[in-house]
Every structure is written in structure tokens, then in C-alpha cells.
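Progress report, Aim 2. The chain analyzed during this reporting quarter is listed below.
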Amino acid sequence: MPRTIRNPKLDTRSARARLAIRREPYWTPVQQGLALGYRRAPTGGTWIARRYDRDASPALTYKALGAADDALDADGIATLDFGTAQARARTWFADRAKSTADPDAPSAGPYTVADAIREYLEWYAVHRKALREVEYRVNAYVLPALGALEVSALRTTSLRRWHEALATAPRRVRGKKGAAPTYRATPTDPETIRKRRFTANKTLIVLKAALNRAWREGRVADDLAWRRVTPFRDVDQPRVRWLTADEAVRLVNAAEPTFRPMIQAALLTGLRYGELAALRIADFDSASKTVHVATSKSGKPRRVPLNDEGARLFAATVAGRAPDALMFSHADGEAWGKSHQRRPMAEACSAARITPAVGFHVLRHTYGSALAMQGVPLGVIAAALGHADTRVTERHYAALAPSYVAETIRAKLPALGIVAQGNVAAMSPRRAATART
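Predicted C-alpha cells for the chain:
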């Protein structure tokens, strides 16, 4: 049995937690031609294998192996420790060595939706983020219904029925690995139906992305079957929940002391939970009053300006601390991990009498909504929140700035002189009500 390679940066979850979040994995050689990579993200890391063969085309190939045991204990299946990840990488490397001279050539058997999904996930692990979310979506909604079908045999009508069935099915509740799936009640109210249709659209996008990549790679002859399937329209208008100033003060005061700075920072920066959890002391620049986000959901770094209140918060947080220390942490110094915010957030909402209770992401919406209602241009809000463009910003916050829109139109629309001046004055609402009685 090959010996397990040691690497002090990757051996343990505590060592990996000290690594900077970045897109390029941390690589360690396992054997000649094979390297194991660890990609750290705000929500947990993943293992990736890399094979190098200078005589092959392409010379470098990659394989997503599974999630690292950063938050959950390793089970040897979906969650892997460092040693198990090496073993799985070696197995994949050996299987590739036994394959044909062109490892990326189409197999002799039928090319199925499952094959297209597998190849897409391998590519996605290297070139995109949020792999776990995509894996969950295809495993829950795509592969059970479509995985065994040949891609060349797909028909528009059957894909459309599958898409529509997703929208009418009850919402699946995430459970433990291997447990039987459970579901919520069948949707009946308009808002729940909208959300189910929106979720169905997101799943359709993932399926189309996988099939389109298979088509571009020459695995199938045409893309007509799925290109004709269109998403549900007018379902991506979210009902934005935000906190009033009074609710925000009550929530901050009710939060436990170690969690309170996270809530304050979220309200004053609009940063996501994962972005806050990854901040280091050196990310605050007191001179420019900005916070540097090294890696955001979009993969691009950004600087978030702070007002005076925000600058005071971060200045107090960083005082006398090492530049590479975590900005926010538990009382024992451990990093805030995935889902660690749920319990203290629920307890703070209960103590602050905020009903219904809100999740941490509502703090980000509160920041964006406050800016929108003050008439800040949506492009500025998009830049602060790290949105790739203003489409997401408009979907969430455009309706919250009616006064800004109205004032801008009244100020900029010139008088055309097409309506004669009159002497009729509008009656006040009180007088109008009295006149009607």
C-alpha cells in the first residue's frame, strides 16, 4: 500500500482553516504525475486531483474528489480527510492510466445525462465555485429522473414535463447523508408557488449548462432538445425582508457578545456571512476606511467603504491584534464555520422579539435596502455588495427607492407646454372625505 503523504498545511482541519481563501487550490504531490489539491472556500474546502501527462491532450486533467472534513467528520464517501482523499486520487489516477490513449475520447457505450453531469462537475470543480450546491441540485433533482437517459435521445416534451413537475412538487428538506428524503407540504399559496418555480428554473439552468458543455465538446450532435425548454417567467422577484433601525438596534443588543460584532459588521458593510468569517485583521484599512474582501461569491476581490460608525467598529476590533489573525472568531479563537451563525442568530431574534425570526442574510438585505431608500444609485449598491452587474441589485432593491425615482423624474423631465394652466386646486384628502359624507 502506498504511504500517505504528509503536509502540515493540509493534514488537519485546523491547519487548513489557517489558509487563505483563494480560487487556486493548494497542491501537494502524491506520486509522479499526480497531485492532490485543496481549495478553501468560505463555506468549506474541497479535494481535487490533478493528473499530468505531457503526451496526452490536454496534458493536465482534473477530478473533483469530494468535500474536505472541515466542518463535518469524514465518512469516506462524500466527506474525506487528507489520507482518504489521497487514496481516492490514486484510484482515479490508476483508472485513467488504464484507459485509452486519449482519455477524453467518447466511450463506446451510450452517452447519458449522468455522463454529461459527471464531466460538467469535474470541470466545475476547477473553474467555478459553490460546487456543493450544484452537486446537491443534480443529485436531488436531475440524476434520479434523467440520469439514465441517453443525451441524444432527449426530447423537448419530456424535458419540459420534468421541469414543470419540479415546480409543482413539494419542497425537499435537506437531511443527513444517506437518509431517506423528506418533503414539505405541496405548495398552494402564490408566494410558495413562485419560489418553487424559481427553484425549478435554477435546476434547469444547471442541466442546460452540463448539456451545453457536452454539445460544445462534441459529445452530442445538437442541442435543440433542451434549447427549446424555456424557464418560467416573472418568478425571480424576491420578497425582500429587511430590518428597521429599531429592529437592528434590538438585535445587536440581544446578541451574545462573541456574535454581536458579526451582526454589527454585516449591518454596516453588507458582507455575506462567509466573507465576514474569512476576514483578517490586515483587511481593514483605517486610512481609507475600507474593508478588503479577498474572495467573494463572484470570485472577484472588492473594497467596501465604511461610514464613520463602521470605521469605529473595525478600528476597535483590530486594535492590538496580529495582522494575520481572524477579524471575527468564537470566544476560543476558532473560526466561524458553516452554519455556526444559525443558533446565535435565532436566539438573538427571539430575545429581540423579531417575529418572524430572520436569517443572517437579511442583515445584508438591510444594508442594501437602507442605501436604496436613501436614493443611492443601484450601480453603487451593486459595487458595494459585490454583484457582477446591476441585474441582481435591481431585482432586490429597485422597488425600495420610489421616492428617488419620483424625484429624479420630476427634476429631469422638462415641461412640454401641452397642458393649459387652470385654476382648479386639488382638494385635501380630509376635505375630500368630508365632501363624500
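The two ends are 94 Å apart (CA to CA). The chain has a mean pLDDT of 84. These observations will guide the mutagenesis work planned for the next reporting period.
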